[in-house]
Specification:
Strand content of chain B: 5-15%
CATH architecture of the largest domain in chain B: Orthogonal Bundle
Structural class of chain B: alpha/beta
Helix content of chain A: 40-55%
Number of helices of chain A: 11
Number of domains of chain A: 1
Distance between the termini of chain B: 36 Å
Radius of gyration of chain A: 19 Å
CATH topology of chain A: Rossmann fold
CATH class of chain A: Alpha Beta
CATH superfamily of the largest domain in chain B: MetI-like
Largest sheet of chain A: 6 strands, mixed
Radius of gyration of chain B: 27 Å
Strand content of chain A: 15-25%
Oligomer: heterodimer
Strand order of the largest sheet of chain A: 6-7-8-3-9-10
Structural class of chain A: alpha/beta
Shape of chain A: globular
Largest sheet of chain B: 5 strands, mixed
């Protein structure tokens, strides 16, 4: 594991409502190069705020955040965002732009040639497993939820970022699609050598996809570690979060007989 | 005779290129100016609640001002501005016609555009704004590639509303000297030419619909990213503008412009003057339907060359004099005052068109009323009707003071309907005009002004400052002086109030010239 973290939060704080509501409270967290980090927490835990602080969609009040070794405050926020992929929960594709134009938006902003953009879009459609002849010129409204989210992932990857931030990317999908997309993305993460930070409220999803898991509650980082390390946490909330998938797994195992058993 | 066989349709059609052309150019210019101002303002205001409410508040206030008043207000405003720029920068511009009309209409177009642009931009999903930021757009890129395209249907709806409003309201720019389809409507209302009124209304409605549909086509093209449809819409509007531009540019402007106020007699007299000039080999055109507050200033500013005014109107309204002088003295004094403004009082036409108290002859006889003095004792039981300005004019104050007049009720009405109203007994007395042909038609009688409370109202020819030494013009106009008597003028006005082709101002003017040359 390399020594320098790709994203580093150091005593970071952010409050809304003129300081009355602390969304992120003194969080320190390193995201290592190449890792898949999941941030788990309930609504209002500050996980989305923490994610958005990294590409300056939200500005921090306190502390210091570095991305690729540079303090984000010293970097032009627009240039910073063009280097970091971002996937939204609902896809948030631009409804008036075709699939090609949605995926090609960041390269276009970076001034790539039209030929480069089209080649890259085709490459990405293949990567996210969408048929390029049928999907390229469609509008987002003509796609299914899963297809939209695949386009959202392709858009985030378009300008070959090293870092991808994902805000509950699979939360709004049906279970089958969700599972398939999660697995596909995990494969991409490895294949492309990405550093991924994914927000989810679903501990099972975090356990299945991520290398490490950060647990947040009321703006504070409660616990950080691999699934094994988390299992040893003595924090009650963490234990409670882990209990749900564990119980579900046991019950499912009992309900669904495996091959060779009867 | 079927209504479509009426020769006045052809007459109306012959003016179409001119009126429609002016109307389209005015509307397009006003709309373009309105958009140039209101689109950037709305964009700047979209994230500033305070600025937004001020902007929408101001434009709503503008909207509550009636279109006619807004147009009329711009004229004196620009006139004052023109005199300031002349003094300070020795540069002046015409405050007449196109400019005030365009500015007023541009202002009028702003509310729907601003309201819809702000609503449209604020209606863009907040998640998409976040997404635009997250993919690395600057604020400007977000505005142009995401916010404006998504708000486009709402913005275009506002622009279409504005276009329809502007085209409709542009018909009201006739009284401030801008030729428009309103010329049909104003002239038609004054001369009871319903063919003209109908023609003007239909033309304005068709134009508004056509522009609305072309804009809809453009919007549809932009939204569905069909370049063809967007281009067709744009080309349609371009063709419309170009088509109205070509005939106007090809024609050389007439050398003399004859002004006319907004009533029948003025339409007849301006037609008469124009005919007289053409017969003398000069080119002339009439600028009709000008407001009585606008026409004098337009003459003083050389925007029109000649028109007929009335001595008493100039005396009391233009120069705010209240003393009553004998007619010769009044004319002499007027001539001096006008000369100080470089305006030539060329001479009297021969008749008076004074305000006069008028009632049905039978009723007057029954009540034993012959003069205004007789009326005074009966007045408390009677009602009086007058045109829009009469009751605020100095003549009314003078009458009340001289005779102690006090009526049971006073009503303001459209001059054309006033005579019918008094004939049918809806009002007892009206403040009519002494040269009006309807006096004879309805068997009405003019009550004697024994105390001479109403100043003399001789019809006089006024010439613009730049025409003071124009001998060709003056030679052509000379024969008109003293040539029209009150009986001829009444007859002419009566003929002009008819509703057939012989009642057109041009036809009546020809009759009037023949009649006066016989004497």
């Amino acid at each position: 594991m390399p020594a320098t973290p790709l994203i580093a939060y150091s005593h970071v704080g952010k409050a809304f409502d003129a300081g009355r509501l602390a969304a992120v409270d003194d969080v320190s967290l390193d995201v290592r190069e190449g890792e898949f980090l999941a941030i788990v927490g309930g609504s209002g835990s500050g996980k989305t705020t923490l994610l958005r602080l990294a590409n300056r969609l939200i500005e921090a009040d306190k502390g210091r955040i570095t991305v690729e070794g540079l303090d984000v405050r010293a970097v032009n926020p627009v240039k910073l965002r063009r280097r970091i992929g971002y996937v939204f929960q609902s896809g948030s594709l631009f409804p008036h732009l075709s699939v090609v134009d949605n995926i090609g938006i960041t390269p276009k902003l970076l001034g790539w040639s039209q030929a480069e953009i089209l080649a890259r879009v085709d490459e990405l459609l293949e990567l996210v497993r969408l048929d390029r002849t049928t999907h390229r010129d469609r509008l987002p409204a003509e796609l299914s939820g899963g297809q939209r989210q695949r386009v959202g992932v392709a858009r985030a990857l378009a300008a070959r970022p090293r870092i991808v931030l994902m805000d509950e990317p699979f939360g709004a999908l049906d279970p089958l699609t969700r599972d398939a997309l999660g697995e596909d993305f995990r494969a991409l993460h490895i294949k492309l050598g990405l550093t991924t930070v994914m927000i989810t409220h679903d501990m099972a999803e975090a356990l299945l996809l991520a290398d490490r898991i950060a647990v947040m509650r009321s703006g504070k980082l409660l616990s950080l570690g691999t699934p094994k390390e988390l299992a040893q946490s003595r924090d009650g909330y963490v234990a409670q979060l882990l209990n749900t998938p564990r119980r579900q797994a046991e019950r499912l195992a009992a309900l669904l007989p495996q091959d060779g058993e009867s | 005779m079927s209504i479509l066989a009426d020769p006045r349709w052809r007459d109306a059609l012959s003016h179409l290129a001119d009126y429609l052309g002016s109307h389209v150019r005015l509307s397009v210019a006003a709309l373009a100016l309105g958009l140039i101002v209101s689109l950037p303002l709305s964009i700047a205001a979209r994230n500033r609640p305070w600025f937004r409410s001020v902007l929408l508040g101001l434009s709503s206030i503008v909207q509550t001002v009636p279109g006619l008043a807004l147009l009329a207000l711009f004229y004196p405003l620009l006139l004052a501005l023109a005199s300031i720029t002349l003094r300070w920068f020795s540069f002046s511009f015409s405050a007449f016609g196109f400019l005030p009309a365009m500015l007023a209409l541009a202002l009028y177009s702003m509310l729907p555009v601003m309201r819809n642009t702000i609503t449209g931009l604020n209606g863009v999903d907040a998640d998409l704004l976040q997404a635009a930021q997250a993919v690395g757009m600057t604020e400007r890129q977000s505005l142009f590639t995401v916010e404006l395209p998504l708000a486009l249907p709402v913005i275009m709806a506002g622009i279409r509303t504005a276009a329809v409003w502007v085209i409709g309201t542009a018909t009201l720019s006739t009284p401030i000297g801008q030729t428009s389809l309103g010329n049909y409507i104003f002239a038609g209302l004054q001369t009871q030419n319903w063919v003209f009124v109908l023609f003007g209304c239909i033309a304005a409605a068709v134009l508004a619909l056509a522009v609305d549909q072309l804009l809809a086509l453009m919007e549809n093209g932009l939204r569905t990213r069909s370049r063809l449809r967007a281009a067709l819409g744009g080309a349609g509007i371009f063709v419309l503008v170009a088509a109205t531009l070509i005939p106007t540019l090809a024609r050389s402007p007439p050398s003399y412009i004859v002004g006319a106020k907004t009533f029948t007699e003025q339409y007849v007299l301006s037609a008469l003057i124009a005919q007289q000039l053409r017969d003398a080999g000069l080119s002339a055109s009439a600028r009709e339907g000008l407001g009585s507050n606008v026409i004098f200033d337009a003459l003083a500013a050389n925007d029109i060359d000649v028109y007929v005014d009335y001595s008493g109107t100039l005396w009391a309204n233009q120069f705010h004099r209240s003393e009553i002088l004998p007619r010769d003295k009044l004319l002499a004094e007027l001539k001096t005052i006008l000369a100080s403004q470089n305006i030539t009082l060329f001479g009297e036409l021969g008749f008076e068109n004074a305000y006069a108290l008028v009632m049905p002859k039978a009723r007057a006889d029954a009540l034993g009323i012959r003069s205004i003095s007789d009326l005074a004792s009966r007045a408390p039981a009677l009602s009086i009707g007058g045109d829009y300005e009469f009751f605020s004019r100095p003549e009314w104050t003078a009458l009340q003071r001289a005779y102690g007049l006090s009526f049971r009720a006073q009503r303001t009405m459209q001059p054309d309907f006033m005579y019918a109203a008094v004939a049918s007994g809806e009002v007892d007395v009206i403040a009519g005009y002494s040269s009006d042909g309807l006096i004879a038609k309805y068997n009405l009688v003019v009550l004697d002004d024994v105390r001479q409370a109403i100043p003399p109202y001789d019809a006089v020819l006024l010439l613009a400052p730049k025409r003071a030494g124009d001998e060709a013009l003056q030679a052509a106009l000379k024969p008109l002086l003293g040539s029209i008597d009150i009986a001829d003028m009444r007859e002419a006005n009566l003929r002009a109030s008819g509703s057939d082709a012989a009642a057109s101002p041009g036809a009546v003017a020809r009759w009037l010239r023949e009649s006066s040359s016989r004497r």
